[in-house]
Design goal:
Layout: H1 3-6, E1 13-18, H2 22-33, E2 37-39, H3 40-43, H4 53-71, E3 76-79, H5 85-98, E4 101-107, E5 123-126, H6 135-150, E6 157-160, E7 182-185, E8 193-195, H7 196-199, H8 205-211, H9 214-217, H10 234-238, H11 248-258, E9 264-265, E10 274-278, E11 286-288, E12 295-297, E13 299-303, E14 308-310, H12 312-315, E15 320-323, E16 326-333, H13 339-342, E17 360-363, E18 368-370, H14 372-376, E19 380-381
Parallel strand pairs: 1-3, 1-4, 2-3, 4-5
Antiparallel strand pairs: 6-7, 7-8, 9-10, 10-13, 11-12, 13-14, 15-16, 15-19, 16-17, 17-18
Amino acid sequence: MEKQEVEQLDAPIILAVKGQTRNTVAYKLAKHLKYPLIDQDEITPFLQNSKHLNNISFEISLSIASIQLKELKLGVIISTPLSQKTQLDNLKKQAKSAGALLVIIQCLPKDGSNDFNIEGVPRLIVDPRKQTFVAEEFVSDELDKVRKRSYRHLHPLIFKNKLIAESEVKCSRCQETIPGPYYQCFLGCDEYRFHKACGELPGDLEQVGENCPKYLRVTEPEYLFPENLRSNCKICKYKGTEFSDGCHDCLFQTNMKGGFLPIIVNHESHAHPLNLLMMPLSYNYEFRCSGCGDFGHSISYRCYDCNFNLHVSCILLPRTVSYNYDKHPLRLTYDSLEQSYLEKSYCEACKEERNPEHWFYYCPACESSTHLNCVTNQSTRS
């Protein structure tokens, strides 16, 4: 599974570099990342003498950055003294209006400007006095970690059958310490780690069906979550916004809080774990179900390695049913490629042709095959 298949860096980034060595660090980062560089010190000499030079040059820097962020969707690097709390507040507003991630890079030694507490913004420390600053290493070792934690992206979970070295790592669902084994986001998000039991489908399939509201398992789902269970994600909290059904992280968090659907399903029909994928309706996400063969929208259980998708309703199909037109229980069957099945590639109920590669209900005693819909419309669970 490649990272670019699941990572969705859907927002630009602002790197505000401050401190005595800020120009050197900012120039190296701009060259490596190929981001526009706005140097506040280069603007100041062109302004007329004024006691407000610092503020004016900072506001001009922000104005230039706004064009890069909003119009061109580019990341920007601003080399700035960032000497006042109001300037940080304005940077935050700029980032919020552009939907950008703001990161402060503090270069040591500090430049003697007024220091203030930086809250609610990721801050990285650079000290070129200790070792030569290498932009490539800084981006891969430090900046990428912040981006993974802060950017919206899908969260394919991978299973790790080992102990966790850190003793205080907690499960995102139950908040208890994880000794191992566990599930973790493929991209390394610290906030998406789960005990094996907390991530997987519980044993009682019928209970899962009862917990899952109808609006999540229909062909055209809607996100009608009760208001008291709606939860905003870390990024939306940082941006000061509430739950949004246009944010897949908010949908993920809300489902986790409400316990509507399991995050991981180990299904008999597929060799790999299936991840719950909940996409905003505005994304128009569409897939073809590998079970019934019909199209689905917005919500699926997906294997990222195999491009295998299932409807929620297909995941919840009963494994055995009683059927009005057969005295024997019918068994949900996935592997329809055996010769005996191919010989009867029609539905016993409606007498229409049946695609032998799609799931069906099978009676071993009668050797009869029936469409899923033909059975579920008239059957009861046994």
